[in-house]
Structures are given as C-alpha cells and as structure tokens.
Specification:
Elements lengths: L3 E4 L13 E6 L5 E6 L5 E8 L13 H9 L8 H11 L2 E6 L4 E8 L3 H14 L4 H19 L2 H13 L13 H6 L2 H11 L5 E7 L3 H12 L19 H4 L13 E4 L5 E8 L8 H12 L5 H9 L3 E10 L4 E9 L4 H17 L4 H18 L3 H13 L7 H10 L2 H11 L6 E6 L7 H8 L2 H9 L1
Parallel strand pairs: 3-7, 8-12
Antiparallel strand pairs: 1-2, 2-3, 4-6, 4-7, 5-6, 9-11, 9-12, 10-11
Length: 466
C-alpha cells in the first residue's frame, strides 16, 4: 500500500533516539487519518475529532454540541450505556471526550493489545449513538451540574466572559456548555438533527500514536467507518493534508472590533479580571513569536507581570498571559485575581507592560528564557503518547502544519527581539483592548481609560494607520 510518511515526526532527535513515523491518509469517505508509529512503546493513544463544536450550533440550540457529546456515551445501536462503561473498564485504559468551540474530540489511551477494541468502541459511539430520549433528562441534569460547577469558578467564568466579549455577535461568543435555560430546552429531536448532520466521516479526523502498524491501522479504520475502498487517496499540501480554515466553516470568524468591558457581580473575596486583545489564528506564521510574546509578558515566574504584580507589589497570587487560538481567529488574554481595591494598580501594570512591548524590544535575556521554556515544553510533551496523538490530530484538523520537532525548534530560535515588538504592535492595538471581570465589581476601573494613560495620541494614530 502506498503511504505518505515523515520519519521522526513529531519526535525529537535522530533515529537512534526516536524511530517514530507519521503516515497520513485521506480516506474514501472524506475522513482523514494520521498514524504515528512509535514502536518502542506498549500502548496506543487514539482520538476522533468531529467538526461538531459549539461554533456550528443553531442559534436557538446553544449547548447541543456539548450535550450530544455526553449522550454519545449513553448507548449505541449495539451497546447499552452500561456495556460501554464496562468495556472501557475491562480494557483498563483512559476514555474521555471534550467539546470545544470548533471540534468535539473523543479519545482513548490503552495497552496496544486493546487497540482494535478501543477503536471499535469509539467508532461505534461516534457513528451509531442512539440518543435515547429516556436518557436525555438524566444527562441534562448532569450537564446542568457541570454548568453550575463552572459558574462557581469565578476565574474560569471571567475567562469565558472575555472570550464571549471578544467574539461578540458571532457563534463563537456563546458558551460551549450552553446556559441552564438553553440546555433545559433541548429535545431529543434537536440532538438527533445535530448528530446526523455533523457526525459523519467527512467531518472526522482520526489520529493514532503508539505501537501500531500504519497499514493495519488504516484497514481497521476503514472497516470502522464502513468504507469499502481499500485504495487510500493521499493528499499532500506543504507536506500535510489538512482541512484548511477556508474549507472548515460556513461563516468566517469575526474581525476584532472594539467592545465595552463586561462586569458580572458575584459575592467573592477576589475580583477576577481577564484582559483581552487581538490575537492570531493557529496556523499563522507568527505563532511561535506569539507564544514567546505572551511568555515574556506573563507566562512564567520571571515574566514581567509575575515579577511586578506578584513579586514586587504583592497584589496577586495568580497572574498569567496566554494565547488562545482557533483555526481562523484568536485572542491574547491576561488573567489576574486581586483584592478589589488593588484592581486599578494591577491594571496599570498590565497595560503599561503591553504598551512597553509595542514601543521597546524585549531584552535578549527575556527572549532567551522564553525560548527555552517553549522548547522544553515542546520536547517534554513528546514523551507522552497522548500529546503526540493530539499534535497530529490537531494538524489534520486545521490547527497549523505538522512539522518535525527540529524544524519547530529552528523556527523558535529564529525569532528575534524585533519580531516580538513587531507582533506586539500588530495585536496590542489600544482601541481593541477590553476586559471581563467577575466578583465585587463596584468601582471597577474603565480599561480604556487605563489604556489612554499609557498609549499617547501619536501612538494611537500610528497604529490606526498601520
């Protein structure tokens, strides 16, 4: 069988240290399969990405994607919910699922001897779920408790509200879990309509990493999907077949626009704030520069915000900055939890450091530390089969190309201090900086007023004309 393969991807080092190989297929029914053979292991990680995240939900059915993920575990045409649970436990592995804004992913990690059974079980769930109306009310209760759990976490709630604020007016702005009101309204008919529209092979990516043979895995996946053609169609675009953002979504992501800050009053000790600015799509050529930028700003113990807000001023215990990327959009977030009276001082530091990155290049020492953190995290993640499986699956799902780790390390090392400043000016546009806050919000500072003190009018005009 012909196959398109990349030796040593995404593992690090020469073949004496890593004999892994990724083989990629575009299956006859439209599904895509990536198999990373890691022969020195005794287990297999597998995942199925379904293009069925909250982004594609009908406007009047928020939460249907997440509830559908739950209901898939409640039985298939050949397995009851109890039998599914017993088979999972019989294999002794890990089984789970997660709904995101763009994809719902089902995954497992089992001993290599159980791979065929695990694949059959996951495939049965995603292709043959019954969505039994008798199970719906119970599972709605489970999801409602999950929503309450997230509502009881003010930090996570502030970050969710910030994402909703950034994508305001678009399907991406809706909470992935839905709201209590929207979940209660969902019917079995809503679930079946969503499931039958999106849970199809052409909307699926399958990724496997571990002690497996690519050709045998291909045959097993074809059988699982019910595809009869045994001649794989190989698709190579810059070395990797991917959906590509243009083919993914009917409605493109909204362009970043200015939004007023959002405050949710809650009886908590701390005020939780999430400041958001523009960002990048996952496949953007500046993706590594973005990761380094957020690391320098607030990504570690030596970052600017950690050093100033926690170490020097003692204003917060938790402070972090991070990139949040989807296939065709993204935002930059900074989270901090402080005593309400310290909100103004914390915001001053955050905005000041954002402005400084636009006006001055970071030091060589700051960039070097950020690079080592990023490279170390990447290489260490390759010691996890689940991480390797996720990397190849994400690449096929449209989250950027799958590259040999040595190439990724080279691209990280190639980023200069000038690149960081250039990107900061691109994404930290002052008029787009906004914030969501949860907690005792009375007297909350106006984020745009804070921005106005650190970006002078000349800088604003220069950015507007860029």
């Amino acid at each position: 069988m012909d196959a398109l393969a990349w030796p040593g991807m995404p593992g690090a080092g020469d073949k004496a240290r890593d004999r892994s190989q990724v083989t990629v297929y575009c299956l006859p029914g439209g599904a895509k399969l990536a198999v990373e053979q890691v022969p020195y292991t005794r287990s297999v990680a597998l995942g199925i990405w379904v293009k069925a995240g909250s982004r594609v939900e009908p406007g009047d059915a928020n939460g249907v994607a997440h509830l559908c993920e739950h209901m898939v575990f409640r039985g298939t045409t050949s397995r009851s919910a109890q039998r599914l649970a017993e088979e999972m436990d019989d294999m002794g592995g890990e089984f789970n699922a997660v709904t995101g804004r763009e994809f719902t992913t089902f995954f497992a990690h089992v001993l290599d001897q159980h791979f065929d059974q695990a694949l059959d079980l996951l495939g049965d769930m995603v292709l043959n779920a019954t969505l039994d109306e008798r199970e719906l009310e119970r599972e709605q209760g489970v999801v409602l408790e999950e929503i309450k759990m997230y509502d009881d976490d003010p930090g996570a709630l502030a970050e969710e509200l910030a994402a909703s604020l950034f994508w305001s007016g678009h399907a991406l702005s809706r909470p992935v879990e839905g709201t209590a009101a929207s979940v209660k309204k969902l019917t079995a008919a809503d679930l079946r309509a969503f499931y039958h529209r999106y849970y199809k092979p052409q909307n699926m990516v399958i990724a496997v990493a571990g002690n497996v043979d690519p050709a045998s895995t291909y045959e097993a996946v074809v059988q699982m999907l019910g595809q009869g053609d045994r001649n794989p169609v190989m698709v190579a675009a810059n070395g990797m077949p991917v959906y590509g953002p243009a083919a993914l979504w009917d409605a493109p992501a909204p362009r970043a626009t200015a939004h007023p800050q959002l405050a949710k009053k809650k009886n908590t000790e701390q005020l939780h704030m999430c400041i958001v600015a523009d960002g990048l799509a996952a496949g953007d050529g500046d993706i590594y520069t973005w990761q380094l930028l957020t690391s320098i700003l607030g990504g570690g113990n030596s970052s600017r915000l950690f050093r100033r807000i926690r170490d020097e001023l003692g204003l917060a215990y938790a402070i972090s900055s991070y990139p949040a990327a989807l296939t065709d959009t993204g935002y930059t977030a900074t989270y901090v939890g402080v005593e309400p009276a310290a909100a103004g001082a914390a915001l001053d530091v955050i905005v000041e450091e954002m402005a400084r990155l636009c006006e001055e290049e970071p030091t060589m020492g700051e960039l070097a530390r950020a690079k080592e953190q990023l490279k170390t995290g990447l290489v260490l993640s390759m010691e996890s089969l689940s991480s390797r499986m996720t990397a190849v699956g994400n690449a096929l799902a449209g989250y950027g190309p799958l590259l040999p780790v040595d190439e990724v390390l080279r691209r990280i090392d190639a980023v200069s201090t000038g690149d960081v400043k250039r990107l900061a000016k691109r994404i930290f546009r002052p008029e787009l900086v906004t914030m969501a806050a949860v907690g005792p919000v009375d007297g909350l500072p106006d984020i745009q007023a804070v921005v106005g003190r650190f970006w002078d009018q000349e800088f604003r005009q220069a950015e507007a004309g860029a």
